[in-house]
Specification:
heterodimer; A: 727 residues; seven-stranded mixed beta sheet; globular; B: five-stranded mixed beta sheet
């Protein structure tokens, strides 16, 4: 086996710069590809790795970013489990941004999906080598030895600690056939582990990007044009320079790349407050540019006109027009959903220090490799001159995949030849984001006399995320279509169309992305059809999903309607669907497949003084193998709140090209007094692990709207509910 | 131009700091930038999210809205401090594995400490009222509430 290198202490020190040595297992890329030519492996080039020290301490590298997703615990626990390591001896080291770790982009709810098998391999390999080392030491057959909780134990009862075996194990060849643990013997996988960082989170010592300090570091606030892609015409810094602590004011240009800074006027100060105050004192004239006319209210009207006409056909099965012509009942609805902002608690920020050709960055980033590429591109320096240190992220939700703020820090550091920290204000975050798209959707369906759905037309218009990468793109990409096109309903006549939608602000992905709008419209519309068919929404939906089958999607991972129905039935059972509720309460349900996971939620809602109150949320997820049950539960709890925030309050609007909202005061979030009790069930499964961070979000808003309908007979097709004074 | 130097003395976590800062500087930035205690977080700067809360004489305040001149000589406790209720709550937070990203948790803990400082037996409504000034974008509210209630129960058991 030539894919794995056993790295000597010496080469490890050389490559990583650590003072202590030990067994380093480097798992090269080639392990996961057909290319296993050992000649190509000439240096320490790990994908994922473990470091076992002679004192028995075990360091496991986390290659994905920690932003509340629990990834530093889940991924590392998989290694520890396969290795039979003692979790108490494990510490986690965060990887810098480097291609040698494989893809580090922490989005798409795929860290565990992508890395589960690789992490198991890393742990299994280490365990096997430790067994070999112990067997050699004792001069006994390996079959008489087994690993258990950081020891190798011989059948006679004698044992050696992992740390004691380090010197010998370093000299051993890599095992050729990896033997994995029987899943029934897992001791961390599928169990409940607390976050390995929980202590640091609660005592204030966890270092987020905004907490990074360097000697002589300057703090920078940047004034950006209120209109997306507008530029500086002129500015007067006189008043700003008089603010105590302000040291300099410079203009930074816009970089015309997807993740390029917007440009603006940068105030360089000795502390954050001075930077903010200095910026307020700037006098700036802007060239607003082509997006000055953006009025999101008018734009919504235009999008809606487009979905009320024929669009570009994306998918067609049978003949919807024929089905509509022969229908007993026709139902038509239009859905309008606004832009949203990520608004992570920690604003975008970054520390950068450009020294000659080198640049070192400390930043909360979901994608350190993208940051590295963008910084290197800006500086015109090779990638290996750029180091991206990944701090904790105070929330990400997709915003921190886009490293524009990191390039800003790089630009200013280079300009003033000093380490700088760029800090966005909350207003900057709300007004200059990469917004979740704005959408209008038109749906039309036909029912026969028995209430079966015979035809389904779904037309959408929304600016594409691809417009951020390829300016001018005004139709969605295939992956932005699939959650509508692959709706798992058994309908013979089916058509998906898209309308044109140019982007007037930067469009980006936000937690659960396109599933927010498709999950909403499809679930609300299906509920409406159940009502039109005079059937119970649960029975109707199960019938609409139809037979147990594997759906033939374009995606390599197919979905299974039996699993989809199972989460829905389980959520309904857990919520006592159909059983009497307190007077004035009603249930609503929604089910959605996204990020390869199946999620259903049943919510219990009442109206008190014409205001919505969500009392209970029962969420069920089937995400294949559950790696850390507590993380999954936490993500479902959090997703319920995230979904409620967008359902209740989520709305970003633009007038004269400028975003109208400012801060958490007018871009509101759910707070403690509004929370429901969230109960979560995780379906037991041995299937491949699938997404957890995002798929809990899309079901919440439609389930609430469906419950409100049941309670009041009124259907809300547009969000947020605050527009109707319902919250 | 002559700048008048006004030294500001702050008593934070029982330690005295003498700072040469603008008296109007919000306490948040004095703590984070001048003193270097970074557990207290910036979230919005307008008192809308609670990430910046610290205790002043045992009561939680928004440090982003409080000029240093207003708290000179007062007892300030941050998340790095050792107030009794804070430490008990931190243990419960760990037990319930409350944090997701963790960023808002110092402010949540400080607010909960303030609540328990003034109310030994808070009802659900008391908890809601006390905690509603703090946003958690990850949505950990349910666990925060459980951890507060657990702490109250522990304290009751400890003190017969």
């Amino acid at each position: 086996m030539n894919e794995i290198q056993n790295i000597s202490r010496r080469s490890f020190i050389k490559n990583i710069g650590l003072a202590s040595g030990g067994l380093i297992l480097a798992c090269n890329y080639t392990l996961f590809s057909q290319n296993t030519d050992s000649e190509n492996i000439t240096e320490f080039n790990p994908n994922l790795f473990v470091q076992l020290n002679s004192d028995g301490s075990l360091i496991i590298i986390a290659s994905r970013s920690e932003m509340g997703n629990g990834v530093r615990t889940s991924l590392t626990s998989v290694v520890a489990d396969e290795m039979e390591a003692d979790w108490k001896r494990v510490s986690v080291r965060q990887a810098t941004g480097d291609a040698k770790y494989g893809d580090q982009n922490t989005d798409g709810s795929r860290s565990v999906t992508d890395l589960y098998e690789r992490m198991r391999t890393m742990g299994a390999m280490a365990r096997m080598m430790l067994i070999t080392a112990a067997a050699k030491t004792w001069q006994v057959p390996e079959t008489e030895c087994h690993a258990q909780n950081h020891f190798i134990i011989h059948s006679s009862g004698k044992k050696l600690g992992f740390g004691e075996l380090v010197n010998l194990v370093q000299t051993l060849p890599i095992p050729t056939n990896i033997s994995y643990k029987d899943p029934k013997d897992f001791k961390y996988i599928g169990k409940t582990l607390k976050s390995i960082d929980v202590k640091n989170f609660v005592n204030g010592t966890a270092v987020y990007g905004i907490d990074k300090r360097l000697p002589n570091m300057k703090v920078v606030a940047i004034a950006r044009c209120p209109v997306t892609f507008g530029t500086v015409k002129s500015f007067d810094k006189t008043a700003a320079m008089k603010i105590r602590g302000v040291e300099n004011v410079i203009e930074i240009p816009r970089i015309e790349r997807a993740f390029g800074p917007l440009g603006g006027v940068a105030v360089i100060a000795s502390n954050t407050w001075a930077a903010f105050k200095g910026r307020e004192a700037l006098e700036i004239q802007w060239n607003y540019g082509k997006n000055e006319g953006y009025d999101s209210e008018k734009y919504m009207t235009e999008l809606t006109e487009r979905v009320h006409k024929d669009g570009k056909v994306e998918k067609q099965i049978g003949d919807v027009n024929k089905a509509f012509g022969e229908a007993a009942t026709i139902v038509e609805s239009t859905f309008q959903l606004p832009h949203l902002a990520h608004a992570p608690m920690e604003v975008p920020n970054a520390v950068a220090w450009v020294q000659g050709d080198n640049c070192e960055v400390w930043a909360p980033t979901q994608s350190p490799q993208t940051a590295r590429e963008e910084v290197a591109s800006y500086l015109g320096t090779p990638l290996d001159k750029v180091t991206i240190n990944v701090t904790f992220l105070g929330g990400g939700f997709g915003r921190k995949s886009k490293p524009d703020y990191i390039v800003e820090a790089t630009m200013v550091s280079k300009a003033i030849n000093a380490p700088v920290q760029v800090v966005w204000s909350r207003e900057d975050d709300i007004k200059h984001g990469y917004y979740h798209t704005v959408s209008s959707q038109y749906m039309k369906a036909s029912l026969d006399a028995q209430g079966n759905v015979t035809g389904w037309l779904h037309r959408c218009a929304f600016p594409s995320i691809m417009s951020t990468f390829t300016p001018g793109t005004d139709y969605p990409a295939g992956w932005e279509v699939s959650s509508a096109a692959d709706v798992p309903f058994d309908i013979k006549n089916f058509k998906i169309e898209f309308g044109q939608a140019p982007a007037m602000v930067r469009i980006g992905w936000m937690r659960s992305v396109i599933n927010i709008l498709h999950g909403f419209s499809i679930n609300v519309f299906a509920d409406e059809l159940a009502h039109a068919a005079k059937q119970d929404p649960l029975d109707f939906r199960l019938k609409l999903i139809g037979s147990d089958r594997i759906e033939d999607t374009k995606d390599p991972m197919k979905y299974n309607t039996a699993r989809l129905k199972h989460v829905l039935k389980t959520a309904a059972k857990n919520a006592n669907w159909g059983k009497p509720l307190p007077k004035g309460h009603a249930h609503g349900l929604a089910v959605h497949y996204s990020f390869y996971s199946y999620v259903a939620s049943v919510v219990e809602v009442s109206m008190i003084d014409d205001k919505v109150k969500v009392h209970n949320v029962h969420t069920v997820i089937d995400c294949g193998t559950a790696v850390n049950k507590d993380t999954i539960k936490a993500q479902m709890e959090g997703a319920a709140i995230f979904g409620m925030s967008l359902a209740y309050y989520g709305k970003i609007t633009a007038k004269d090209g400028a975003i109208e909202q400012n801060s958490y005061s007018d871009y509101r979030m759910i707070r403690m007094n509004e929370i429901p009790k969230v109960q979560v069930e995780i379906i037991e499964s041995t299937d491949k692990p699938t997404g957890v961070g995002e798929p809990g979000v899309p079901v919440i808003a439609p389930a609430i709207v469906n419950a409100i309908f049941k309670l009041t007979g009124k259907r809300y097709y547009n969000l947020p509910l605050s527009d109707y004074e319902l919250v | 131009m002559q700048i008048e130097i006004q030294m500001t003395t702050l008593l934070i976590n029982k330690k005295k700091y003498t700072l040469d800062v603008d008296p109007e500087m919000p306490l948040l930035w004095a703590i984070r930038d001048s003193i270097g205690l970074t557990g207290t977080k910036f979230g919005c700067g307008i008192g809308a999210c609670g990430a910046c809360k610290v205790l002043v004489d045992n009561v939680a305040i928004y440090s982003c809205l409080t000029p240093v001149s207003m708290v000179t000589g007062k007892n300030i406790t941050t998340i790095e401090g050792t107030a009794e209720n804070l430490q008990l709550l931190q243990k419960s937070w760990e037990e319930f594995n409350v944090p997701q990203c963790g960023y808002c948790q110092p402010g949540q803990l400080i607010t909960a400490t303030s609540l328990l400082n003034s109310n030994k037996n808070p009802s659900d409504t008391d908890i809601d009222n006390a905690m509603s000034g703090n946003i958690c974008r990850c949505g950990t509210y349910q666990r925060i509430k459980s951890a507060i209630k657990h702490t109250v129960e522990l304290k009751k058991q400890r003190k017969p």
